[in-house]
Design brief:
By secondary structure, the chain is of the alpha/beta class. The chain contains 6 helices and 19 strands. It folds into 2 domains: about 80 residues, no CATH class; about 180 residues, no CATH class. A hairpin with a 5-residue loop joins β3 and β4. The site of zinc ion has 7 residues, from β4.
C-alpha cells in the first residue's frame, strides 16, 4: 500500500486523484481528529488509513461526475479502502459548510466581512480526455473569482479583486444571507439576528462588500477554517462581492452551481 507520511491509501485512489493524491491523503489525515471506526483520537504519529467512497457516473455528453467521501481510521481499526458506487451522473445533494470571519486591517483600522464555504461531498468532474476538476472551483472561476495561491486570509483579502458583475450577496432584514451568480444561488444561510456574532458580521457586511472564499478540501474546526490543503491543491478561489439589501425572505429557484446550462444543480 502506498503511504503519505503516516497515512496509507488504496493505490486505486490515484486513478481518480492523479498527481494530487498524496496531498489529498495528507490533508485528510491532518484534518482528522478521531478515528471513524473506533472514535478514539488520532495523532500525527499513529499509523492511519484512508478510506474513500467514490460515487460517480457518466453524463450523456461523456463528462464523468464524481463525489468523494473520505474517512480516516487507525490502521489497526480498518485498512485503506476505496469503494466505487455507480450513482448520479450529474445531480447530487450537497451540504454546505461555512465559516464567517471579520478581518481587521491593522493599517487603516477598517473591517471586512468574509464568508468561507465548501460543499460536502466534494464534487468533481472529468470531461472526455481531460483532468479531474473541482465542480465548485470551476463554477467560481467562471464567475470571476480568482484562484487563491496562499492560505493566509489577510493575504487573500489583499490580493483579491471583484467577482463578476452579476455576483451579489443579498442580505435581508431578517438576516438571510445568499450568494447569487445571475439567477443561480451558490450559497444560502439564515443568520440569527439574536446572536451577537451574527449581528456583528451582518453589520460589517452591510457596509459594503464581502470577501467570499470557496473551494474544495477546506476543513472547519473550532479555530476557524483551515485553507492550507485547498491552497496547495489549487482548489481555493476568492472574490469580492457587493452586499445588497434584499426584501426577499427566501431565495427562489434551485440552488445551483452556475455555468453551463447542464451543470449539476445543488440543493441544500
Ligand atoms: Zn480506531
Amino acid at each position: 500500500m502506498p503511504a503519505t507520511s503516516s497515512v496509507e491509501w488504496d493505490p486505486d485512489l490515484e486513478s481518480f486523484k492523479g498527481r494530487s493524491t498524496t496531498t489529498y491523503a495528507a490533508a485528510a489525515a491532518a484534518a482528522a481528529t478521531e478515528c471513524a471506526a473506533c472514535h478514539m483520537p488520532v495523532t500525527a504519529r499513529t499509523p492511519l488509513a484512508l478510506s474513500v467512497d467514490v460515487t460517480g457516473g457518466t453524463h450523456e455528453d461523456g463528462t464523468e461526475y464524481f463525489s468523494f467521501e473520505t474517512q480516516i481510521c487507525h490502521r489497526v481499526c480498518r485498512p485503506p479502502a476505496l469503494t466505487f458506487t455507480v450513482g448520479h451522473s450529474s445531480p447530487i445533494e450537497f451540504t454546505p459548510q461555512a465559516a464567517r470571519l471579520i478581518l481587521q486591517n491593522p493599517l487603516t483600522g477598517s473591517s471586512t466581512a468574509a464568508l468561507v464555504f465548501t460543499y460536502l461531498p466534494m464534487m468533481s468532474f472529468r470531461e472526455p480526455g481531460g483532468e479531474l476538476t473541482s465542480a465548485l472551483v470551476t463554477a467560481l472561476l467562471r464567475n470571476g473569482f480568482q484562484l487563491a495561491m496562499g492560505a493566509d486570509v489577510g493575504g487573500i483579502l489583499r490580493d483579491t479583486g471583484p467577482a463578476a458583475g452579476d455576483v451579489t450577496c443579498p442580505v435581508t432584514d431578517a438576516g438571510v444571507l445568499t450568494l447569487r451568480a445571475g439567477q443561480a444561488t451558490m450559497y444560502h444561510e439564515q443568520l440569527d439576528p439574536a446572536d451577537p456574532d451574527d449581528t456583528a458580521w451582518l453589520a460589517v457586511a452591510r457596509s459594503g462588500t464581502v470577501l467570499v472564499i470557496g473551494g474544495d478540501n477546506l476543513t472547519f474546526n473550532s479555530a476557524g477554517p483551515d485553507l492550507d490543503a485547498a491552497a496547495q491543491l489549487g482548489t481555493l478561489a476568492a472574490g469580492m462581492v457587493p452586499v445588497i439589501a434584499s426584501t426577499q425572505d427566501r431565495s427562489e429557484g434551485t440552488t445551483a452551481l452556475p455555468g453551463s446550462a447542464d451543470d449539476p444543480p445543488v440543493t441544500e
